[in-house]
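2.7 Reproducibility. Because tokenized structures are sensitive to small changes in the input, we list the exact sequence used for 2-octaprenyl-6-methoxyphenyl hydroxylase, including any N-terminal residues retained from the expression construct. No trimming or masking was applied before prediction.
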Amino acid sequence: MSQPKTYDLVIVGGAMAGASLALALCQLTNSANKTPKIALVEAFEPSTKHPGFDARAIALAAATLAQLKRWGLWSSLSSLGTPIEHIEVSDRGHAGTCRLHAEDYHQSELGHVVELEAVGQVLHTLLSKADVDLYCPDSVQSVDSTVDNHTLTLSSGQQLQCALLVGADGLNSVVRQSLKIPLTQKDFGQAAVIANIRCDKPSNGWAFERFSEFGPIALLPMSDERMSLVWAMEESQQAEILALEDDAFIARLQQAFGYRLGNITQTGARSGYPLKLSFIERPIHHRCVLVGNAAQTLHPIAGQGFNLGLRDVAALVTCIDKAWQQSQDLGSVAVTHDYLQSRASDRSQTITSIEALVRGFSNSHWPMVAGRNVALHLLNAISPLKTPIAQRAMGFHQALD
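Resulting structure tokens (single pass, no recycling of outputs):
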């Protein structure tokens, strides 16, 4: 077998977190005007067939947009986004409602909704033009570690050697499993049904988080007057909901969500997945860092999963930049622990708050229902109380003007 190709770092996983990381790192230079030597391994090529109405979508918070702009990536993605200008959080059948408006915080939007299929196409095109060795489609078969490096053997037979290995390969991370890094999981006993729908009233930039006896429902505005639906429910209900004919599904969803967008007129294909909180206590290992869903996978109740993951990416870029400027070993303990410390507070606070939201708003016991409705009413009535909620929704951690 030929000698392994040598890199400063290898990123495994080329979805949004891994691709964004690779493209951001390409922009780093040291005093000798050198950039890190980077490889990215991705198992799947982006599909050439856009599923259109049934494309999955995620919300990018305002802080995420700002970071993508700093890396020069948002200009290539902005045409794919649908702005969120208002958010309504409500409890069906009760008076408690809280509304957030971007203009109240001197922002043009609270975030944007993008379709992952289209974003993947753009990022893959950018990667093909960047100073990154892209191994796609290819996958990691094994990881052999020494004091000084990791050697990855790919399914193609190619071997890659690196000072720093980055796992950005999702919940079932091959990197995590290869290095036997323990994963903590908390089962909420819930599952999600996702689909894209149309209603007979335009969204006008509104996103909705609706809590009901049928489970939490999130609706995000998309292009072509569609709405992206994530409906969390008890696991025992998912199979029944997925099996419904379109008309029956629409009727059930209408009953659960109400008529804030008028009549629901159309649904795309539905799919489902279990809802668990999964996270690594210390998302680092010997010469290894895990980011995004490889480090933590959140309940979608507040749409913070990718936004937290991109903050992982931004922190890692900062740590690597500092080490690269000082000609340090990128896989050193100093670099990995710098990253660990930089992410500790944000990860802990976000994971804890999401778990509290799930348990508090997926509960039909009347004391909990009464308490959350009083809270929603007070939040809406007293503007200063909404500011921390708005900051978290937009992904900002500093005070808003």
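The radius of gyration is 22 Å.
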